[in-house]
DNA sequence: CGCATTTGACCCGCGC
DNA sequence: GCGCGGGTCAAATGCG
């Protein structure tokens, strides 16, 4: 399992209200760069595509400072830090402070290394249904793990973020089906598991509430959408951004929920597309919560090259 | 009726 | 090897 890995992330996560972007009931924690006047964001999508993005360019594009990136802890693949484990349920809680090294960070993200794509849990979840089930009755299907040592866990790119929200399940433009719920150790709040309802799309997400700060919802996305969002969302990106920005760019690949701006997990930014393509995708942080609440373009322009903010004629 | 959610059981990896 | 905890499945149930 890799949750302790995320714990690492959680340990790093610190709510920083100073730079909190309030969008009504839902507050999105934003990450600020070293200089508070130029907070750095990235869209959710972008984060997930971070695998394809050169972080160097991003730094340039968004003014990400080295210090701002410090707060990201790599979850998968990289040297699991030395950090001590703070009680399992300690999500983004107080203790984070003792572990934080970057006072500016308000949110941390994490994702797996590039190239993990499919496979990860596929081997597990796609346990051949049926067919081999003769051997053991009903559940036998689950039994054929048939996973070999070598081809072990390749994990989907994952990305976690914290959102201050009263609702657990945030609208992000995609449709999700809940497929499970588990009690979280040391936390009174359960963790919910969702899967993208689009067939063939194996994106999953986990949603749980920080028990340290119940107003904070921790969402972890896993995988990348291989389809555009079912644009049925009334407040969705459609209203704010040109369609071109809402559709997955052929270059960068599948889109991801334009849910939030995210800090850059710099560990995973390597190769391919530059910052440009990133924003060609979904750049739509706020309005899904409040349609009328238009994002601060001034702010956006600070961080996004104006060409990406270009509005329809 | 079809789809989404709930929920208990199961699987699996990991630490002891 | 065993137990624990996280993740997933799938039948049952609920809802529009």
From TrEMBL:
GO terms for cellular component: nucleus. Residues 121-141, 149-158 have a biased composition (Basic and acidic residues). SMART domains: WRKY. One of its GO terms (molecular function) is sequence-specific DNA binding. Residues 65-159 are annotated as: Disordered. The keyword Nucleus applies. Pfam families: WRKY. This is Probable WRKY transcription factor 71.
């Amino acid at each position: 399992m890799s949750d302790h890995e995320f714990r690492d992330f959680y340990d790093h996560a610190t709510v920083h209200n100073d730079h909190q972007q309030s969008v009504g009931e839902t507050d999105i924690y934003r990450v600020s760069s070293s200089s508070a006047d130029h907070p750095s964001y990235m869209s959710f999508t972008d984060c997930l595509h971070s695998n394809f993005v050169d972080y160097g360019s991003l730094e340039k594009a968004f003014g990400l400072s080295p210090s701002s990136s410090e707060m990201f802890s790599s979850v998968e693949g990289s040297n699991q830090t030395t950090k001590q484990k703070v009680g399992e349920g300690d999500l983004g809680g107080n203790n984070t402070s003792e572990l934080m090294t970057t006072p500016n960070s308000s949110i941390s993200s994490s994702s797996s290394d590039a190239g993990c794509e499919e496979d990860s849990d596929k081997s597990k979840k796609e346990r051949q249904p049926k067919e081999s089930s003769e051997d053991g009755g009903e559940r036998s299907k689950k039994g054929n793990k048939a996973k070999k040592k070598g081809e072990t866990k390749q994990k989907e790119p994952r990305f976690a973020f914290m959102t201050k929200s009263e609702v657990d399940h945030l609208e992000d433009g995609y449709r999700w089906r809940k497929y499970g719920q588990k009690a979280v150790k040391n936390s009174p709040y359960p963790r919910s598991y969702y899967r993208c309802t689009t067939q063939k799309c194996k994106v999953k997400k986990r949603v749980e509430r920080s028990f340290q700060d119940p107003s904070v919802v921790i969402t972890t996305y896993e995988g990348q959408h291989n389809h555009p969002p079912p644009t049925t969302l009334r407040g969705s990106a459609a209203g704010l951004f040109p369609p071109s920005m809402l559709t997955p760019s052929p270059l960068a690949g599948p889109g991801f929920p334009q849910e939030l701006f995210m800090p850059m997990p710099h560990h995973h930014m390597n190769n391919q597309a530059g910052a440009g393509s990133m924003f060609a995708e979904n750049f739509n942080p706020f309005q899904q919560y409040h349609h009328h609440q238009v994002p601060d373009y001034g702010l956006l322009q600070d961080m996004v090259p104006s060409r990406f903010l270009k509005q329809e004629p």
